[in-house]
Amino acid sequence: MATAVTEISTPESLANPPSQSVVVRFAGDSGDGMQLTGGQFTLSTALAGNDLATFPDFPAEIRAPQGTLFGVSAFQINFGSDEIDTAGDAPDVLVAMNPAALKTNVSALKLGGLIIADVGEFNERNLAKAKYDANPLEDGSLAKWQLVPINISQLTLEAVKPFGLGNKEALRCKNMWTLGLALWMFDRDRKPLVDWLNAKFAKKPELAEANIAALNAGHAYGETVEIGGQLRQSHVAPAPVSPGLYRTMTGAEAVAYGLVAGAQLAGLKMFFGGYPITPASSILHYLSGLKEYGVTTFQAEDEIAAIAAAIGASYAGSLGVTSSSGPGIALKTEAIGLAIMTELPLVIINSQRGGPSTGLPTKTEQSDLYQAVYGRNGDAPLPVIAARSPGDAFECAIEACRIATQYMTPVMLLTDGYIANAAEPWKVPDIVDYDPFPVSFLEEVPEGGFRPYARDNHLARPWVKPGTPGLMHRIGGIEKAQGTGNIDYSPANHQAMTDTRSNKVLGVNVPDQEVQLGEAGDTLAVVGWGSTFGPIHQAVRRARARGLKVAHVHVRHIWPTPANLGELLHSFGKVIVPEMNTGQFKTLLRDQFLVDARPLNKVSGQPFTIAEIEAAIAEHLA
Amino acid sequence: MNQITPIARATTPKDWETDQEVRWCPGCGDYAILKAVQRTMPEIGATPENTVFVSGIGCSSRFPYYMETYGFHTIHGRAPAVATGVKLANPDLDVWIITGDGDALSIGGNHTFHLIRRNLDCQVLLFNNEIYGLTKGQYSPTSAVGTRSPSTPYGSVDRPAQACAFALGAGARFVARAYDVSKDLSSVLKAAHGHRGTSFVEIFQNCIVYNADVFAGFTEKANAHHQLWLNNGEPMLFGSDKSGGVKGIALDRDRLELKVVDVVGGDWQAAGVLVHDVTNRSIAHMLVEMPFGPFPMALGVLYEDPSPTFEAAVMAQNASASEGKTPDLGKLLKKGQTWQVEKDGPSL
Ligand code: SF4
Fold first, then answer.
1. Are residues B34 and B145 in the same domain?
2. Residue A260 C-beta-side C-alpha neighbours within 13 Å
3. What is the spatial distance between Cα A268 and Cα A317, in angstroms, rounded to a whole number?
4. What is the pLDDT of residues A307-352, one digit of tens each?
5. CB of B210 closer than 6 A to ligand 1?
6. Of B90, B110, B341, which has the smallest distance from its Cβ to A316's Cβ?
7. Which chain B residues touch A342 with a CB distance below 8 Å?
8. What does each of the 348 residues of chain B score in pLDDT, given as a tens digit?
9. Which helix (DSSP H) or strand (DSSP E) does residue A390 occupy?
10. How far does the centroid of ligand 1 lie from the alpha carbon of residue B149, in Å?
11. Residues on chain A touching B341 (C-beta within 8 angstroms)
């Protein structure tokens, strides 16, 4: 089967075992609709049965000045007939809608890769904005790649002429033309897209028709124009996935659905307090549309009010949830301490982004692990779990709800910008397969009297809803006496309460750590957490295919850690920990287990590539 | 107030006391307020289990520990936000917020503003003692210019905030004022409870340790003629013959501001004295801004004009958005474009 990968013989592609996968990157101005193009191409890819992973990469500015380097928006998709875990390292195909898009993306392109460039946009003005002295399409500087210049702008204008759109509106159809060409290149069905356009522009049929015409024109262009070898059609076979019903899923959506499922399994209504922040806002958006599931959403005046209201709702008997990204979590910190002190259930989601401070709002990073595990005043422990992929975020959200309600504690769920925005095919689970964990509120004075800080076998205190007769009580952030919960500053009591809070969290029932690839005792373990799962998994798989004894261990439960983790880590000859930070989990592992964990760090705002992890494996095994 | 179930049983003030030792300084105005609240609860037919007191941080915020109700002593400035979550999770609860000048107007100013603008149904009792008591006496956002304190040994230089003006500016639909030892505090509390929406009550409270007698200019018996008690439909009169004559508040129609006029022989109409109309927002703005000294201190219900409450709107939208929809998680997960993978590959 012909794919771009198998046809191109470059040293780099030869170094990797041949696989039936293709990486395509669409890059253009942020006004060019690249995210939409990418999203629709993703859907068609999923429908073609390929496994896939995507990486949307867009500027922080909403409408960055047109044609500028910092206004470039890109969408990368990796799809194939084999299991796909990452958005791919180097693209095989780059679609560049203008000079700035070419300049910022071409260096990532695989040697010999294909560039499709819209020559209509390579005019003097745009070249100057992209800081090109000469037109790269003409000066031979792209010789190591295959260049297919097409006047997409012109061809689009011609295709939509019959619909009488203004020049600006007509040019907006460029992305559909491009998508049409891409669909042809990979032998895709246009029908789902035509249906989608008809639905999207139901109120403006002329726009629907113009976009469909552009789509068809792009497709027809591929079919009829002879460009001689460079642009050709290929077909990537469906990936062998386990039978079932599938859909594409982003991490933000998965978190939202997982929370709804978690609240349902706990038998609770959910209260979600949020404040807009990139890249966490979409969770608020999704949940706002799910009121019939017993979800109340509250867009608060700030991050602090968002969590404080969620704590108030938990106090009143709902499952309180709040979500943010690093800077917002920092603001919530004092309130998290209150939830720890008052021992109320609360789920806190941190969609991490590049930091510190405002940092890189739209880029991904894993640098809030210290903040999650250690970042509060006082000895203030809480369980921390980390999702490794968009689909996994669904499971993790349910797990967070379970721990929060069973142990009367705030729980932090870590995702990141990559997981939140990226899409992957997701096998729709059957909700009846999940064990419910119904909450029982205390409704009557128990034998021996009511004590607001009595403990059950999880060391959890009773949850009493205001409105319950006979169980009135007062809670607060001041240290309280064991059992009664009355204000108590005495030394022995503070010692005992601090120990109890710590032991409660350490006692959270966490499944044993599994080895994702390889086995205990291997020469080298690559230990990851969160969204580095994909590149680590592929790199380890490739290393093992070459006969190397390398294992992949991916930790979901960051705190408390699985009981067997220390022993497992000590079984390996060497341990490396790739992270998109300067070594936070590495430090935690060293501290907890006195294991010689070695860091592999990347803080460029971009996910690891498989090649980077492979190189580290090679280095450590040398 | 709220739609709580009608009086389930009669209570007495004692039923509202906890077994906790009250830990305010002896002589603190907080004691009088606590007593007034405990006395008022039976009269308004409240039930302890349906009542929630939420507070922030400060001397006043210890209040919930002394009320035999549900109580939440939260963190500095955030009581309005916590209370919002409580009320949205269970609108049947009767929610009271206890806060102070530093808690509500300094660190929590943002939340106070948004609570009021949203009009959450609750009572806000702001104990204003014009000082930070719990942290040992620093000047507060309501302290008069020139207040000497540990952090302002040469006197404070910033202009004080006016709590009721702030509340009105935020869109409050109920604004009232009283002071700790006033015999009328209870009736103000009742009015606040009777109002649906955010009832904002500023209570001048004497901090006997760090800011003693700062309100004596109108709270002392001898100074009672500096109190202007507002009653809906009644003329704005204060003072007495004994105190040097009855006076009234009139409108200077040229300058569109209030003025003090003498009332001779009880003929307030002739003196142009205004009749208090609690729904008159413009006059309310003037009343809350009257400088004390040239003017008396306006007390009682200064403004009341109900409008729809936040939690009712949220509940109504939750209900209408859910109408005719069956929550089916299985279906939700399958929403959007899906494809079935059989043994031999996918199909639409
Ligand atoms: S410091 Fe002042 S406000 Fe605080 S309890 Fe003592 S007297 Fe009351």
1. yes
2. 27
3. 8
4. 999 999 999 999 999 999 999 999 999 999 999 999 999 999 999 9
5. yes
6. B90
7. 72
8. 445 444 457 999 999 999 999 999 999 999 999 999 999 999 999 999 999 999 999 999 999 999 999 999 999 999 999 999 999 999 999 999 999 999 999 999 999 999 999 999 999 999 999 999 999 999 999 999 999 999 999 999 999 999 999 999 999 999 999 999 999 999 999 999 999 999 999 999 999 999 999 999 999 999 999 999 999 999 999 999 999 899 999 999 999 999 999 999 999 999 999 999 999 999 999 999 999 999 999 999 999 999 999 999 999 999 999 999 999 999 999 987 788 877 654 444
9. helix A390-407
10. 15
11. 49, 241-246, 427
Structural domains of chain B, count? 2
Residue A369 distance to chain B (closest CA, Å):
25
Put simply, the answer to whether B341 touches A304 (Cβ < 8 Å) is no
Written as one letter, the residue type at A186 is: F
Q: B245 with B290, same domain?
A: no
CA of A343 to the centre of ligand 1 (A): 29
Q: Is the pTM of this model over 0.90?
A: no
Tokens of B7: 């009086």
**B152: distance to nearest CA of chain A, Å?**
28
Q: What six digits make up the tokens of A531?
A: 């969204």
Out of B33, B62, B129, B142, give the residue to mutate to test ligand 1, the one with the largest number of ligand atoms within 8 Å of its CB: B129
Whether residue B256 is found in the same domain as residue B158: no
Read off the CATH number of the domain in which B56 is found. Answer: 3.40.50.970
Give the position, in ligand 1's atom list, of the atom nearest the Cα of B30.
8
Same domain, B19 and B131: yes
pLDDT of residue A226: 55
Which residues in chain A have Cβ-Cβ distances shorter than 8 Å to B118?
Answer: none
DSSP A543-563: HHHTT--EEEEEESEEESPPT
Question: Does residue B345 lie within any of the structural domains?
Answer: no
Place of tokens 């930091």: A355
Q: How far is the CA of A221 from the centre of ligand 1 (A)?
A: 82
Element (H, E) at B333: helix B329-333
Pocket lining: B207 vs ligand 1, CB cutoff 6 Å: yes
Beta-bridged to residue A78, according to DSSP, are A23, A53
Q: What are A385's strand-pairing partners?
A: A413, A557
pLDDT score at A223: 79
Closest chain B C-alpha to A49 CA, distance in angstroms: 5
Of A308, A297, A453, A344, give the one whose Cα is nearest residue B54.
Answer: A308
Q: Determine, for residues B333 and A431 on separate chains, whether the beta-carbon distance falls below 8 Å.
A: yes
Say what the pLDDT of residue A461 is. Answer: 98
CB-nearest to B89 from A271, A291, A487 is A271
Same-domain check for residues B123 and B262 = no
- A361 within 8 A of A278, measured Cβ to Cβ: yes
B80 contacts B112 by C-beta, under 8 angstroms: yes
DSSP state at residue A83: -
Ligand 1 pocket, residue B22 CB under 6 Å: no
Six-digit token string for A544: 């093992």
pLDDT of residue B346: 46
Ranges of residues in chain A with a pLDDT under 70 are 1-20, 62, 226-233, 235, 237-238, 240
Q: Name which of A315, A336, A479 to mutate to probe chain B: the one with the most chain B Cβ atoms within 10 A of its Cβ.
A: A315
Residues in B closer than 8 angstroms to A261, CB to CB, are 329
In a domain, B330, yes or no: no
Query: Is there a single domain that holds both residue B181 and residue B268?
Result: no
Pick from A169, A33, A30, A152: which is nearest to A100 by CA? A30
- Expressed in angstroms and rounded, the spacing between residue B209 Cα and the centre of ligand 1 is 6
Check pocket membership of B25 for ligand 1, CB cut-off 6 A: yes
What is the residue range of B244's domain? 237-275
Q: Do A296 and B73 touch (CB under 8 A)?
A: no
Same domain, B245 and B259: yes
Q: Tell me, what's the pLDDT at A3?
A: 26
